[in-house]
Amino acid sequence: MLNRWFKRRQPDPEPEPHFDPITPDVPVIAIGDIHGRFDLLERLPEPPAGTQVICVGDLVDRGEQSAQVLRALHEQPDIITLMGNHEQMMLKFIDNPKENGPRWLRYGGLQTLSSFGVSGVSQTSSGDDLERARDALQGAMGETLLDWVINLPTSWVSGNVAFVHAAANPLIPIKDQESRTLLWGHEDFGRKRRRDGIWVVHGHTIVDTPMIKGGVVSIDTGAYATDKLTAATIHTGEVEFNYL
Question: Mind listing the pLDDT tens digit for each residue in 108-127?
């Protein structure tokens, strides 16, 4: 009865997580989702000495020049290239074209096949047509390029900055992230802040303009459709956005 005369004390709100200034070990230029736009990627100027370039994945599909993008990045071992969900879809197509082909073709795989000179399929293709397309793609890529794609990393950390394709679960360390989260996203990413002070730079989710919010740096500006491929230059305490 007496409880109604006393206001129940509410717990103090949890303080916002603290983020030190963004501080990679070396200056970094992070490139957003390329999606077959080699014409934009080749505008990247020679980076200053001591600067690391990293591409955050989704190199292929949708744009018309996926083959050129893969070959160019493969020939640049000094550039760190991450895997995106579209590279994963391509690899799943190669592994099982009948099962995984229809979905990949709907989401840009036709353009990738075309860039490697593979024809004779459409979004409605099935069965043996998909297996023939897979065999032709493998032949056009060659074993060396295919192995390189298979072994692309899913994250890279420099200082207090993690670079991923899609997202990171804010509740667990970067080293313990599941590959599905890194490649496809997580429901809490961008809504709950990390408490380990790690900044996360990512692509995958298209934004009208590159942005920084709550320790998250978003750099996918839909290059395949907008002609705007974002290059984020990250120094100690500073992020500068430019379009290629």
Answer: 999 999 999 999 998 888 88
DSSP 8-class letter at 174: G
How many CA atoms does the CB half-sphere of 201 hold within 13 Å? 33
Q: In angstroms, what is the C-alpha Rg of the chain? A: 21
- How many Å apart are CA 223 and CA 206, to the nearest integer? 9
Angle between helices 128-150 and 85-95 (to 10 degrees): 130
CB 219 within 8 A of CB 202: yes
Neighbour count for residue 167 (Cβ, 10 Å):
24
Q: Is the pLDDT of residue 182 over 60?
A: yes
Burial class (CB in 10 A: 0-12, 13-18, 19+), 224: buried
pLDDT bracket for residue 14 (50, 70, 90): low
Q: pTM for this structure?
A: 0.92
Q: How many CA atoms lie within 13 A of 8 on its CB side?
A: 4
Reading the block at residue 28, the tokens are 């970094």
Separation between Cα atoms, residue 82 and residue 89, nearest integer Å? 14
CA distances from 123 to 110, 116, 173 (A): 8, 17, 39
Buried b (16+ CB within 10 A) or exposed e, 199-222: bbbbbbeeeeebeeeebbbbbbbb
Q: What are phi and psi of 136, to 5 degrees?
A: -65, -40
pLDDT digits (tens, 9 = 90+) for 212-243: 999 999 999 999 999 999 999 999 999 999 99
CA distances from 244 to 38, 105, 166, 220, 241 (A): 11, 27, 21, 12, 10
